[in-house]
Amino acid sequence: MRRREFFKLFAGIAAGWPLAALAQQQAGKLPRIGSIQNEPSELVEALSQGLREAGYVDGQNIILDTRYHHGSLERFDEFAREFVALKCSVIVAGSPYAIRAVLKETNTIPTVGIDLESDPVANGWVESLARPGGNLTGLFLDIPELAGKQIELLKNVVPTLTRLAVLWDSAIGTLQFHATEMAARSSGVALESFPIRTAEEINDAVNRAAQKHIDGMMVLTSPLIFNQRSQIADLALKARLPTINGFNLYPKVGGLMAYGPNFPSIFKRAASYVDRILSGANPGELPIERPAKFELVINFKTAKALGLQVPWQLQQLADDVIE
Questions:
Q1: Residue 102: phi, psi to the nearest 5?
Q2: What CA–CA distances, in Å, run from 124 to 100, 132, 173?
Q3: Of 173, 185, 194, 310, which residue is the least packed, with the fewest Cβ within 10 Å?
Q4: Exposed/middle/buried for 208, CB within 10 Å: 0-12, 13-18, 19+?
């Protein structure tokens, strides 16, 4: 290949690379993206896809370094320390545990958080949603509004619902639980709390709810609950407890219903934050976003097993049905 043709080809390829990443590449160092995630899943793939669509290819103009904690709380601090030592250009923290661990280790490395359980302002992680002010930005859920909608949907399928159990992770779910308490009062539903901190406590919590002849159960979100979603769905079905959860993957493993944000779209959206930071944006000036798209998923097979009729209007509203 002639010298002139080579430089034309190189210029054409380089033009598609984000400028900051290209600058680091030319300096002989690829920007490293450290990512702390639960487990290999469609969510992690959505993040990778978002990065590819933004022009980043692992091993070519970035290094995407993903660590999986698989629900082990001890791993969060370990991974955070490791990524700080590696001097990552950006860290993507996929849970409140991961965010907490990263912020404990660094207040300088830009961090993109994905968190469905926390209020970043109340936790002191950011100054405001519009202007975070530190090294953290990302996507956080507006919890109070979601709780009320989930109770309303469950009542549509269980019209006799007067007593509601709440299965929740007491290590990180206090904000969620209080929002659910308020929503239950507004709906005229009596609420009973079943907090857990470990997977070993789930079986007992669901069985105690069944023994109290509860009409239905809300299963709040957390990394622990996500990891144990199949177990929870199986136990609830055996206990004949109609359940609703915020993870749209929950009905796919046998849960009755889910209403919550589209999780793959959230992880894909997180890639746009990484892109802007690598292009020179200050994370403290990138507004925190609330997920805008919510989905209703219903498992008709589970509804039939529980002897429940899903109203036609609700069927029409569902984004996905599992039969």
A1: -65, -45
A2: 11, 10, 16
A3: 185
A4: middle
CA–CA separation, 301 and 218 (whole Å): 19
Helices (H), the chain: 3-14, 19-26, 42-53, 73-85, 96-105, 143-157, 174-187, 202-211, 223-227, 229-238, 263-278, 300-305, 312-317
* pTM of the predicted protein model: 0.83
Q: What is the domain class of 3-140+264-285 according to CATH?
A: alpha beta
Q: 3-140+264-285 and 143-261+294-322 share one CATH topology?
A: yes
- CATH class assigned to 143-261+294-322: alpha beta
Please name which of 261, 223, 286 lies closest in space to residue 145, comparing C-alpha atoms: 261
- 320: its two tokens: 């996905």
Two tokens at 92? 């993507």
Domain spans of the chain, in order of start = 3-140+264-285, 143-261+294-322
Distance of CA 145 to CAs 6, 160, 165, 184, 205, Å?
A: 56, 23, 19, 12, 26
The pLDDT profile of the chain, 323 residues, written as one tens digit per residue, is 444 444 444 444 444 445 454 444 444 589 999 999 988 988 899 999 999 999 999 999 999 999 999 888 889 999 999 999 999 999 999 999 999 999 999 999 999 999 988 889 989 999 999 999 999 999 998 766 788 999 999 999 999 999 999 999 998 888 889 999 999 999 999 999 999 999 999 999 999 999 998 999 999 998 889 889 999 999 999 999 999 999 888 999 999 999 998 888 999 999 999 999 999 999 999 999 998 789 999 999 999 999 999 999 999 999 999 98
Q: 3-state DSSP call for residue 139? A: strand
